[in-house]
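Go through this pair.

…
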Amino acid sequence: MKIVGHLMQVVILLTVASLVQAENPSVPHLNIVPLPVKVKPLPGTFTLNNQTRVVAVDEESRRIAGLLNDFLLSNHGLHLRIQTAAPQRGTYISFTQAGGRNLPAEGYRLVVTPIEIRVVGRPAGLFYGMETLTQLLPLGVKPSVALPAVDITDYPRFHYRGVLLDVGRHFYSVAFLKNFLDLMAQYKINRFQWHLTDDQGWRIEIKKYPRLTDIGPQSENPSTEDNFDPYVRGYYTQEQIKDIVAYAQARFITVIPEIEMPGHSQAALAAYPELGCTPAPSAGSSGATVHNDVFCPNEETFSFLQNVLNEVITLFPGSYVHIGGDEVSKDSWKQSAAAQAVMRREGLKDENELETYFVQRMEKFLRSKGRRTIGWDEILEGGLAPNAIVMSWRGEGGGIAAAKQKHGVIMSPTDYCYFDYNQGDAKREPPSIGGFIPLEKVYGYDPIPGELTSDDQKYILGAQANLWTEYISTPQHLEYMTVPRLLALSEVVWSPEESKDYAGFLQRLPYHLGRLEKQDVNYRIPEPDGFKDFYTATDDHVRVQLSSLIPGSQIYYTLDGSAPTDQSPRYQMPFQVPLPPDKKTLLNLIVVTPRGRRSIVYTATLLRRSYRDAVPYTENRPGLTFTLFDGKFTSTQDFDLGTQATTGITSSFDPQQFGRQVNYGVTFEGYLKVPTDGFYKFAVESDDGTVLQIDGEEIVNNDGNHASQVVTGYVPLRQGFHKMELKYFQGTGGAVLSVGWAASGQELKPLDGSALYH
């Protein structure tokens, strides 16, 4: 897993007008998310009140008009009469499919004039036009509302705009799922991948195999870790699933079932152990462990899975079925006489090809039923099934390879789309699996890799956020991890790439946070605008100017290192903080919303310190020296306990260059060439531990055995050469190491060979 993070920089907020139509500065201020393709201002305003009528002729238009009426009643106390003809006088809102064929299937045109609001589109377009219309309304309840006259033409960049919810690890109620689908629809997300089975639970009723839900959805040995709750026993009946699917369809969301195979199958094997290659596992499990128990590739297993999928297909009318295919341990296949017999019979050279055989069998079956198969990018290993769609999660490499093979691709890389990753300081954020994906990073994602030709780019169907729930046990925690990152993703997959701008997004965000506050969504409260670390070698003070992104909220702060409360000083106006030499000041703050919700404590470091002078160096030899150690390390301090394996020179920190997967450490040593005087930021991302020293001073300590995470450090450096040492170790699991650096006020860039010497 690779996570690249950096602190949000203060930016001058641009008006939304410059985003939606830069050539016309008179576009009114609109708060629409995702950003529309085109907005044209019109003269005047439209007055919405109880006398306004709604005109809808056909059945689908009337249904969508009814959804608008539900929103107006619950949010503004208005209930409008729906009729089939325009009134003789007075204002009205019309929904019509006439002219919709001139727009893309999900496109719409929304025209607001002083007399009429007209929404034009095919059914999906009418729905999305209705959602945009709700975002033109103010947050407060008023008997009469003035809307700016405007002409909006809009349609999505990608047809696949998805969210995955893992209910295998933790179970969520039908009522919550409906609220979650409403949240998705509000921001034009149209695919819901329902992760229904995993090692920890089987959550879908299969009538032919009742033991799946008698045994599969429970844990005999729930984790005792503080950040895990016992896994909930529960499953969805087929009637409940039909209800959820219909609810989603009414909001133009396609529900995609995921039935994991051949791995992540411990819950199924606990119920039907004869389907495995190894002795029966216990019923369910807990934690984030990936288990070795997998389906045995024999005819009994294929018959079972086909019977399961026959029932699944009757419940999910959409064209997609996701069959997993990820993290498949091959150990049991290597030891299984039955699996080895299949390999000999089919002429398969290794277990990767056996997995391909397994996936191709299931893909062929699903294709015979009129369904398209989606699998995680591991299904590339050994060769792709003919019509499979690849969901690329281990970076973009799998997606790029699949697109070049002319297969459909859904981008879902851990770097940008894993919403179970942290959004801030891991020591203060709620429990998570690790990593770091702040709001700005999600917003900056582009699902189209630059390596693809224009012809191959058309195979990128869209992108998806994934919410894995090993550490997410409640609806409130799930909402916290989802929002507002979901809003950023909606703009990634809907809005034109060339019109995206994070500053403009931040300007529109307060309206939506206010709306989410009214909807009682437990969104993550963002750091105030203007809140950042400040490092200097020259200034003797810093001016702090803050602005909360949540309407009506309050900011409380401290400067003595203590945690702020409601009794701490309340921010009211900009203030100055003196910066004595070489003494760190911590600005701690919390944001309290109008409903009394409190953010976690946010901390900014304020520091003035002297430059570190450059050291003499005249050799001018590119690259760093490295020393590689073999050993099972838990800290970079343990290298003396290992065995030195090799030494050399390298210009890269990429751990793949060492040809090892697990249990090694490496020390990089040499000199860093600093181009100009400045306060430099270093961001070290690693899985597992790292420690970075500059001129003998520890700048970044990211030591210990952990998942991929980013730790930053700052140091003022004079132009010239500075000694550097970086120690890194890899235990087991993923191996990640990258180093970024930047002078004050600049964007992070990779620290590479052009600045490294020995």
